[in-house]
Amino acid sequence: MRKRKPKKRILQPDPRFNDKLVTQFVNNLMLEGKKSTAFKIFYDAVDIMQTKGEEDPHDTWKKALNNITPQVEVRSKRIGGATFQIPVELRAARKVSLGMKWLIKYAKLRSGKGMAEKLSAEIIAASKGEGAAVKKKEDTHKMAESNRAFAHFRV
Predict the structure, then answer these.
(1) Does 1.10.455.10 match the CATH number of domain 20-80+89-153?
(2) Which H helix or E strand runs over 51?
């Protein structure tokens, strides 16, 4: 066990939208420490969304993130030799983090040319309540709902 909790790192807001959530998203998008490349991908995706007719791409991105953010998840717990999937409410930070990771993951899995194009397509789909990331959220909620009977074993 840890002796003490690690300090929470303070994020700097991004230069374009002055939003700390964008910086967190870019940090999740980043590979091998290449933050400037990750920022370029995100801003290119925003520009693509602008050309596709989205009135405010930043609001569209926030709406997409809101549509993807899960409220509950299931955690495994062994009780008397059997493993149960126990539904658990999520902390606010974990909700946002999971939503971002799912958005990036399913954007990568999309077909298309270039990560910026894939990301913009996934963001637009998620803001409309469709796409693979929204399906992942719905599946997670269904799993929690079907295992509600084991909620009294809460971790």
Answers:
(1) yes
(2) helix 35-51
